[in-house]
Amino acid sequence: MAGTAPTKRYITTRGFERLREEFHRLLHDERPRVTHEVTVAAAHGDRSENYEYKLGKKKLREIDARIHRLQKMLESFEVIDPRTRPKTDRVFFGATVTVEDDDGEETTYQIVGGEELDESLGKNRISYEAPLGRALLGKREGESVRVRRPKGEMELTIVRVEWL
Questions:
Q1: What is the value of pTM for the model shown?
Q2: Which is nearest to 156 in space by CA: 164, 18, 148, 69?
Q3: Are 71 and 20 in contact (CB under 8 A)?
Q4: Distances in Å between the alpha carbon of 69 and those of 22, 25, 155, 160, 164?
Q5: Residue 26 lies in a domain
Q6: Lower CB density within 10 Å: C or N end of the chain?
């Protein structure tokens, strides 16, 4: 659409560092290694029937595409460090929120960006763009939210908001 500003995208400091490490690893380790492999394979003669050469070129294209995507992503994020945010009982991006369901079960989530849902960063992370994340944003401890899910609607009460 012409004239619309791009949507701001948020990421925690931890998630940003993980993506930046991947970018540097690809750029300074993987790409030079694969480039060397392609050079060695090219020296073996006819490239049209050289499997190692074709495979290396394919890997190089994939690495270059990922480097390009990561660079664009890293430039577009607004990085939020939950530990330095003003402490509040309201749920905002980066907050760690404990909710209680109708059965008294408590679950704790951290509100993060979609690129941070990787299990290696920890479990119970939800995107601020997901239905539950959107429902929780701006709410306070003690408030309840209703969330639609495949099994039907459910009500959750915010028990605690932390900034870890």
A1: 0.77
A2: 148
A3: no
A4: 11, 14, 38, 36, 29
A5: yes
A6: N
* 99 and 69 fall within a common domain: no
Q: How do residues 89-130 score in pLDDT, each as one tens digit?
A: 999 999 999 999 988 999 999 999 988 887 666 678 999 999
**Could you read off the pLDDT of 78-97 as tens digits, one per residue?**
999 988 888 889 999 999 99
> Is 2 inside a domain boundary?
no
Instruction: Evaluate whether 147 touches 135 at the Cβ level (below 8 Å).
Output: yes
* Domain of residue 54, residue span: 9-79
Q: CA dihedral in degrees (5, 127, 67, 122; nearest 10)?
A: 160
Instruction: Please report whether residue 4 resides in a domain.
Output: no
**Does residue 3 belong to any structural domain of this protein?**
no
